[in-house]
Specification:
Bound molecules: calcium ion
Oligomer: single chain
Number of strands: 18
CATH topology of the largest domain: TIM Barrel
Low-confidence stretches: 1-29
Mean pLDDT: 93
Length: about 475
């Protein structure tokens, strides 16, 4: 009876508040791959390094668009804008980045500082600026050799989007229901994530609307790629059609999807549907369970092993934190050495590294919204991590294409990277104390990449034997 009553209430709510929702779900085949994967030359490659920022929290260039700004409230706008990103292009480029992923700039419902609550799909949010600003940003970025990735959401709209409230979009939303069982694919795909109106992406009208809209953003603004939000919450057949129809017109356009799942088989499926890359949540967990006080190298080894299930992981994104996960610096309780070890691994692995804004200072921040604080520009000048990231960006250019683990125990890992004739070896002590490390390794000489010091003396009888300090990380050029 209670259930029935709930249904009546929900039905009423659905009718009164959400004129667009549908109660009848049409059965559709969600797994069929109908469109071929277009695998042309992508604009992106292993040479890219992405800087990821939240537009609202990065840099405020104009107070004129600070319409909903209230810096005292963590969960509303703080004033950052598109022109603020443009102002800092040289800063981002100077660290060695080749691309910037910006959070969605689409017009949002009240309070949608993060950009994930679309209200009007054909507008830039008034707090972020105008479509002209975005065109300007892309144009300036391109002049400096930087690509722009736009965050794009098709799964849901904001709580009061125009599509939901205008009374003209019958059957454009799924029946309102909360996702209770994350192992139930239908529930995950059709439920209202975080209570947000879930678009009925099986409806051909909705598909056409979203695909047309995505193409409109590309054509209008000349952005180079999309970071696709909440991919696992949208039917697979949608992504197959979406990526095909975009690539039909823009074959080199880059699409990287967020599937918040550490299972590589699950992630790989979306490659097969047509996305170029996935955010590698498998490696993320491997990294964070390893490079920390009490971490275990076996966690990372397992993730590396799992990663081999990807047919081609080279356009995946590798990361150590983001706006949904606590900042790495906080995870390791402000131990700079562990942060450096994680960053070094991220830069050594043959996927595209993504650095979250503020990591370079480094900023503290626990889970959302603590990890979304305003960029602390006053800390840039004295940062010791900025030179480290610069070093890694150029190290990557010279040495990183192939990767292999050459030795380990549970508290250290040694991995080799190479590109053409250049070879380097990274040794990371994961232990929170001094550690004697010894393993078989053939080389003529070893040079410390950072200090240029000759460390060949540690090569004896076909072995490297050395003592690393607490959570110390060393990069060696191998000849
Ligand atoms: Ca502003
Ligand atoms: Ca708005
Ligand atoms: Ca959905």
């Amino acid at each position: 009876m209670k259930k029935l009553l709930n249904l009546v209430i929900m039905t009423t709510v659905c009718t009164i508040l959400f004129t667009g929702c549908t109660l009848e779900k049409k059965p559709v085949s969600k797994t069929n791959i109908k469109y071929p994967v277009i695998n042309n030359e992508s604009k992106f490659s292993l040479n890219d390094k992405i800087y990821f920022l939240m537009v609202d929290r990065f840099n405020d260039a104009s107070v004129e668009n600070n319409i909903e700004t209230n810096k005292n409230v963590k969960t509303t706008f703080h004033g950052g804008d598109i022109l603020g990103v443009k102002e800092k292009l040289d800063y981002i480029k100077s660290m060695g980045f080749t691309a910037i992923w910006i959070t969605p700039v689409v017009d949002n419902d009240l309070g949608g500082y993060h950009g994930y609550w679309a209200k009007d799909f054909y507008n830039v949010d008034e707090n972020f600026g105008t479509i002209e600003d975005l065109k300007e940003l892309t144009q300036e970025a391109h002049k400096k050799g930087i690509k722009i990735i736009l965050d794009y959401v098709v799964n849901h709209t904001g709580p009061k989007s125009d599509l939901l409230t205008d009374g003209k979009h019958e059957n454009w939303f799924h029946y309102k229901k909360i996702i209770n069982d994350y192992t139930n694919k239908e529930e995950v795909e059709d439920g209202w994530l975080a209570g947000l109106p879930d678009l009925n992406t099986e409806n051909p009208d909705v598909r056409k609307y979203l695909i047309d809209n995505a193409i409109w953003w590309i054509k209008e603004t000349n952005v180079d790629g999309f970071r696709l939000d909440t991919v696992r919450h949208v039917p697979e057949s949608f992504w197959n059609e979406f990526s095909y129809k975009i690539k039909e017109q823009y074959p080199d356009f880059y699409m990287i999807g967020e599937v918040w799942d550490s299972n590589v088989d699950t992630l790989e499926k979306y490659h097969e549907l047509g996305l170029d890359g996935l955010l590698d949540y498998s490696l993320y967990y491997g990294i964070k369970d390893t490079f920390k006080d009490g971490g275990f190298v076996t966690k990372l080894l397992k993730a590396i092993e799992n990663d081999k299930k990807f047919k081609d992981p080279s356009l995946n994104g590798i990361f150590i934190d983001n706006h949904d996960n606590a900042r790495y610096f906080s995870l390791v309780r402000y131990n700079v050495n562990y942060l450096k070890e994680a960053l070094t691994f991220m830069y050594s692995y043959p996927e595209i590294p993504i650095v979250y804004y503020g990591t370079e200072i480094p900023m503290k921040g626990g889970n959302d919204p603590d990890n979304r604080k305003d960029m602390q520009w006053n800390k840039v000048k004295d940062s010791k991590i900025i030179p480290y990231i610069k070093m890694l960006n150029s190290f990557r250019d010279k040495y990183v294409s192939n990767f292999k683990v050459v030795a380990n125990d549970n508290k250290f890992i040694a991995y080799e990277v190479s590109k053409g004739n250049s070879k380097a070896l990274v040794i990371s002590n994961v232990y929170n104390g001094e550690k004697n490390i010894s393993f078989e390794y053939k080389a003529k000489s070893l040079i410390n990449y950072e200090t240029k010091e000759d460390l060949s003396k540690y090569l004896v009888n076909g072995k490297i034997t050395m003592t690393l300090k607490e959570s110390e990380n060393i990069i060696l050029i191998v000849k």
